[in-house]
Design goal:
With about 260 residues, the chain is an alpha/beta fold. The chain has helices at about 15-30, 45-55, 80-85, 95-100, 105-120, 130-135, 140-155, 180-195, 200-205, 220, 240-250; strands spanning about 5-10, 35-40, 60-65, 90-95, 120-125, 165, 205-210, 230. The chain has a single domain, classed as TIM Barrel (Alpha-Beta Barrel), CATH 3.20.20. Strand 1 (about 5-10), helix 1 and strand 2 (about 35-40) form a beta-alpha-beta unit. The N and C termini lie close together (about 10 Å). The structure holds phosphoenolpyruvate (PEP). Phosphoenolpyruvate (PEP) binds next to strand 8. The site of phosphoenolpyruvate has 13 residues, from strand 8.
């Protein structure tokens, strides 16, 4: 049985006040959740503040990106070692916003995957197709390619204790989620694709859905057998929405 995972990706949003207030609410309301792993990914600048605010909480920390180097003359970057040092557990890599606005390639993302594994951090590998690729019926091909690029550099063992987030680009921040049936079909394809390399890794890997998840569509998505939680963007900035999405995952995916 897979334990669901819900991560809030705050993107470029936050302030010391907001971090304090939002985490206080999440901390109070989510402390009894045992059936769902929970993480928040504030901007790097606020990770240490968030870590302090999360003492005695079951909410863990995620970072939104990492550099491929561990130290040295790389102005502005943050290393996996530093993220680990301040208590980060998960690191989102390959988000479409980084692929698009920072020209991140699959090769670079594979290097990020590798450095995270070397430091014992958990990569959350975002994959997914554009609207045009979706219209052209290329969704499966795009997802398979993005996974294969990692497998070209690393063995299937790298996917042990890693997370995949299927995030169709056309569904991110658009209020137009993939339908539960569409998402389930892609998640099943991704799991089967991994299973060709190693069925045990495939059975265990957490595949989150991301793309306009909200309080209204969460339950319909989470009842799908291959959707193991969510990477939540916009709605993770609203305490009541994020709390409700986590509660929904916890109830629907209850592990007996
Ligand atoms: C995301 O950025 O990872 C995301 C899924 O955003 P949203 O939930 O706002 O679509």
């Amino acid at each position: 049985m897979r334990h669901p995972l819900v991560i809030g990706n705050w993107k470029l949003n936050g302030s010391t006040k907001m971090v304090k207030e939002l985490i206080e609410k999440l901390h109070n309301e989510l402390n009894n959740i045992i059936n769902c792993n929970i993480a928040i990914a504030p901007p790097t600048l606020y990770l240490s503040q968030a870590k302090k605010a999360l003492i005695n909480s079951n909410i863990t920390l995620a970072a939104q990106d990492v550099d491929i180097n561990l130290f040295g003359a790389f102005t502005g970057d943050n290393s996996a070692e530093m993220l680990k040092d301040i208590g980060v557990k998960y690191v989102i890599i390959g988000h479409s916003e980084r692929r698009i606005y920072h020209n991140e390639t699959d090769e670079l993302i594979a290097q990020k995957f590798s450095i995270l594994k070397s430091q014992g951090l958990i990569p959350v590998l975002c994959i997914g197709e554009s609207k045009e690729e979706n219209n052209a019926g290329k969704t499966e091909q795009v997802c398979a390619n993005q996974i294969d690029k990692i497998l070209h550099y690393l063995s299937i063992d790298a996917f042990k204790n890693s997370v995949i987030a299927y995030e169709p680009i056309w569904a991110i921040g658009t209020y137009k989620s993939a339908t539960p049936t569409q998402a389930q079909s892609v998640h099943k394809f991704i799991r089967n694709h991994i299973a060709k390399q190693d069925p045990i890794v495939a059975e265990k890997i957490i595949i989150q859905y991301g793309g306009s998840v909200n309080v209204n569509n969460a339950s319909k998505l989470f009842v799908q057998p291959d959707i193991d939680g969510a990477l939540v963007g916009g709605e993770s900035l609203k305490a009541h929405s994020f709390i409700s999405i986590v509660n929904t995952a916890s109830i629907i995916k209850k592990v007996y």
